Amino acid sequence: MIDLHTHSIFSDGALIPSELVRRAEFNGLKMIGITDHGDMSNIDFIIPRIVAVADELNRVVKIKVIPGIEITHVPPILISETVKKARSLGAEIIIMHGETIAEPVAPGTNKAALEADIDVLAHPGLITEGEIVKAKEKGILLEISARKGHSLTNGHVAKLAKKIGAGLVINSDAHEPEDLINQEKAIRIVRGAGLTEKDFEIMQKNAANLF
């Protein structure tokens, strides 16, 4: 099981990175992305620290730790330059906080994100067909979310992505220890979005192919 979207105490998560990684490893995960919330104010603080701890942990644990960031609530006009800055700081995975219906994300966030150098558009809400076509063209993965609220549009995202042939990924968006999911729960969430266990397997390959 690969989970590319989690949070530590460097944003609004409950755990220090080492405990987050250990709990994920205990749950049977093979790869975890630590992707704390960031904008122009804090990415230069967060990313180097996550990179440093990932380097240390990857020397001694079996689970692979991917240092990254979730660019969050950045005005659409500033998304591209913020993503470039995050990449230059060493983020190996860049997730964009999409237009979830659970939060007042600025209109145009999905569109601007898909024009930037991101890897995953998280919980993209009522994403349009045109935006999904763009995601497919650029190889950007669309997230099926396990997180309360953000998961409300999983069915919409899954249906259009399957129709258009865009890549999907399943992530926990974990903030608390109990938010982490194992493979069994991930498959149930995928099935709840109207997809199949085969789709879950493809999602895992999509995630692995980013690295």
Structure description:
This protein is an alpha/beta fold. The chain is 42% helix and 17% strand. The chain has one domain (2-208): TIM Barrel, CATH 3.20.20. The protein has helices at 17-26, 43-58, 76-88, 109-114, 129-138, 154-164, 183-192, 197-208, and strands at 2-6, 31-34, 37-38, 64-71, 93-97, 120-122, 141-145, 168-171. The longest helix is centred in the N-terminal third of the chain and has 16 residues, at 43-58. The two termini are 15 Å apart. The mean pLDDT is 98.
User: Roughly how many Å is the radius of gyration?
Assistant: 15 Å
The percent of residues in helical segments reads 40-55%
Which parts are unreliable, with pLDDT below 50 for 5 consecutive residues or more? Answer: none
The helix/strand class is: alpha/beta
SS strand fraction: 15-25%
Stated plainly, the CATH topology is called TIM Barrel
Shape: globular
Determine the number of helices (DSSP H or I, runs of at least 4 residues): 8
List keywords for this structure.
single chain; 211 residues; alpha/beta; TIM Barrel; eight-stranded parallel sheet; 8 strands; 42% helix; 17% strand
Helix/strand layout:
Blueprint: E1 2-6, H1 17-26, E2 31-34, E3 37-38, H2 43-58, E4 64-71, H3 76-88, E5 93-97, H4 109-114, E6 120-122, H5 129-138, E7 141-145, H6 154-164, E8 168-171, H7 183-192, H8 197-208
Parallel strand pairs: 1-2, 2-4, 3-4, 4-5, 5-6, 6-7, 7-8
